[in-house]
Write a structure and sequence with these properties.
globular, 40% helix, 498 residues, pyruvate-formate lyase- activating enzyme, Rossmann fold, six-stranded parallel β-sheet, alpha/beta, 2 domains, 17% strand, seven-stranded mixed β-sheet, 19 strands
Length: 498
C-alpha cells in the first residue's frame, strides 16, 4: 500500500516556526512499525506553514496514497477536519485515518459531520493498531476485532475496546523510520533537531495532563541498546540536537543517570540534548545527576514548575512532584533547589508554569511571573486549558469558568477560562506583558550559540518576540493594551490560516 502520514501545521506560540520546527515522532514510529512492503511518506506540515494546501495537493499527486493518516492535537482539530475535506476532494478513493491525543480522547468530534469524518480513528498508542489495520485492509477484512480502533460502519461508527498499553521492553515497537520523511527543515535555533523516546508514561495524576487519560498511570522503558541506536539513527539523518520527548524521564532517576553514562560511553555526547524533568527529582538528586547530564551533552532542561503557590499546585494535582525535603527535613517547594543544580552545571532552564487557575488573583499571577523573571532562563508559561476528559476540564465546567468552546484557541497561551477574580483577557495580558521581556533576555545567548542563525534571523526573532508592539508602545506613548490587542489579532489570523 502507498501511505501518506501528515502532522498538522499549527504550532504553539512558544515554538515560532522560524526558530523551532520539531518533527512528529509518532508518525515516523508508525512508519517504522508497518510491514516492510508498504511505501510510507511522512510529511510534517509545520515545515510548510503558509503553503499547506499547495503542499498537500502536491504530495497527493506525487504519492497517490491508498491511505492518508493525520496526527492531531486538540488545538489542531479545525485544521485536521479541513484537511480531511481536502483529501476527500483530491483522492476520494483513499482511506483516511486520524490519531493522536484529540481523536483518542474526543472521537465524537470526528464522527459528527459526514463531510469531514475520517474512515478510521486510531485511539491511544498507534503502532500495533495501525499495523493490524493495514493487514486487515489488505486482507479485505473490516476493523472488527482490532483493539483501539473506531471505524465507519454504515451510517455510524463502531468503537472497539481500548488497546492495552504496550510494554516497551518486549521489542514489539521497532525503531522509527526517519527515511520516510519527504520534507526537510527541522531546526532548534539553527541546529537540525530530532526527537527520541526512551520511555512512555507517568505515574502522577496532574489534573491538566492528557497522558493519563490516554494510557493510564504507568511507566515503561526501552532498553538502552535501542535508545542508543535511535540516537545514532537521528544523528545519521543529520540531527545535531536531540529532544528526549519522554513523558517523565525522571520518574526513575537511577535509570536516567545510567542513560547519561551510556550516551557518553557510546560517544554520542557530541549532540546537544533537551529534556523534560520534574523539579523534585532534580532537587533531590541534582548534586550527582546534573554533572552527569552536562557531561552527556544536555543543554536545555524543561522544568515542570507548574506554579510556585501551594493552592495552585493543589488544584493542578502537582504538589507531590514539586516537593523535596530540605536539610532540616521540611517538605518545601523544589524549584529553586532544582534550578540551582542545573545552573551550577551550566544548563539552561525552560520554566514551565501555569497561571490563570480558578482561584488566581492578579497578585498570585504576578508572583509567579516575578519568580520566572528571577530564576528561569526561558519562560514557557501557559494558561490552564480544558482538554478533553482531563480532571481540570471537569473542575472548570462545574465552576462555570470556561468561556471559549472553540478548540482552535486551545493552544495553551490563549486564555480560554476565567478565574474567580479575573477575565481571560486580563490573565493573558499579564502573561504577555511580562513574558516577551523574559524571552528577550535569553535571545543573545541563543544567537551567540548559533551565530550564523543569529546573523540571518536575529532581527526576525526579535520582531516575533515583540509582535503587536510598535516603537510608540515600547516607549509607552501608546497604551500597552493596544499592542496586546494587535498581538491577539495576529494570533487569531495565524489560527485561521493554519
Amino acid at each position: 500500500m502507498r501511505i501518506l502520514l501528515l502532522s498538522m501545521p499549527d504550532s504553539f506560540e512558544h515554538m515560532p516556526s522560524l526558530a523551532i520546527r520539531m518533527p512528529n515522532g509518532a508518525l515516523t514510529s508508525l512508519a517504522g512499525n508497518v510491514d516492510a512492503h508498504h511505501r510510507v511518506a511522512v510529511a510534517d506540515l509545520v515545515l510548510v506553514q503558509g503553503r499547506v494546501r499547495q503542499t498537500v495537493t502536491q504530495l497527493i499527486r506525487d504519492h497517490q496514497p491508498d491511505l492518508v493518516g493525520l496526527s492531531v492535537m486538540t488545538f489542531q482539530r479545525r485544521t485536521a477536519l479541513s484537511l480531511i475535506r481536502l483529501v476527500r476532494q483530491l483522492r476520494p478513493e483513499a482511506c483516511i485515518v486520524v490519531g493522536g491525543y484529540d481523536p483518542s480522547l474526543a472521537p465524537e468530534a470526528y464522527t459528527s459531520s459526514p463531510d469531514s469524518a475520517p474512515d478510521v480513528i486510531v485511539r491511544g498508542e498507534g503502532e500495533i493498531t495501525f499495523r493490524e489495520l493495514l493487514r486487515a485492509i489488505e486482507a479485505g477484512r473490516g476493523g472488527d476485532g482490532i483493539a483501539g480502533l473506531s471505524y465507519r460502519s454504515g451510517d455510524g461508527f463502531v468503537q472497539n475496546p481500548d488497546r492495552p498499553v504496550t510494554g516497551l521492553a518486549s521489542g514489539d515497537i521497532k525503531l522509527p523510520n526517519r527515511g520516510a520523511r519527504v520534507l526537510t527543515g527541522y531546526t532548534l535555533i539553527g541546529r537540525q533537531i530530532d526527537v527520541v523516546e526512551t520511555s512512555r508514561g507517568c505515574t502522577f495524576d496532574c489534573s491538566f495532563c492528557s497522558i493519563i487519560e490516554m494510557r493510564g498511570r504507568n511507566f515503561h522503558t526501552y532498553a538502552f541498546d535501542r535508545v542508543l541506536a535511535d540516537i545514532r539513527d537521528a544523528r545519521d539523518h543529520g540531527a545535531r540536537a536531540i529532544f528526549l520527548v519522554d513523558d517523565n524521564i525522571t520518574l526513575n532517576v537511577r535509570r536516567f543517570a545510567e542513560l547519561c553514562r551510556a550516551i557518553v560511553a557510546a560517544r554520542l555526547d557530541d549532540l546537544e540534548y533537551t529534556v523534560q524533568a520534574m523539579t523534585s527529582a532534580i532537587a533531590t538528586h541534582g548534586a550527582t545527576l546534573a554533572p552527569l547530564m552536562r557531561r552527556a551533552g544536555f543543554r536545555y532542561v524543561f522544568l515542570g514548575i507548574e506554579n510556585i503557590l501551594d493552592q495552585d499546585l493543589a488544584f493542578l494535582r502537582a504538589t507531590a512532584k514539586n516537593r523535596w525535603r530540605d536539610e532540616q527535613g521540611a517538605r518545601v517547594n523544589a524549584t529553586v533547589q532544582a534550578i540551582s543544580h542545573l545552573h551550577r552545571h551550566k544548563m539552561y532552564v525552560v520554566g514551565g508554569l501555569i497561571v490563570g487557575n480558578p482561584d488566581d488573583t492578579r497578585e498570585s499571577i504576578e508572583a509567579n511571573l516575578a519568580f520566572a523573571r528571577r530564576y528561569v532562563d526561558f519562560p514557557y508559561i501557559q494558561h490552564p486549558t480544558p482538554y478533553p476528559r482531563t480532571p481540570m476540564t471537569k473542575d472548570f465546567r462545574e465552576r462555570s469558568l470556561i468561556v471559549e468552546d472553540d478548540v482552535a484557541e486551545y493552544d495553551g497561551t490563549t486564555a480560554v477560562v476565567r478565574s474567580e477574580h479575573l477575565r481571560p483577557d486580563e490573565i493573558e495580558f499579564l502573561r504577555w506583558r511580562a513574558e516577551r521581556w523574559m524571552k528577550l533576555r535569553h535571545l543573545p545567548v541563543a544567537l551567540v550559540h548559533s551565530p550564523r542563525f543569529g546573523l540571518r534571523h536575529g532581527l526576525s526573532m526579535l520582531r516575533h518576540t515583540f509582535r503587536g508592539s510598535t516603537l510608540r508602545s515600547l516607549l509607552r506613548l501608546e497604551d500597552e493594551r493596544t499592542a496586546f490587542e494587535r498581538y491577539r489579532a495576529l494570533r487569531r489570523a495565524e489560527r485561521e490560516t493554519a
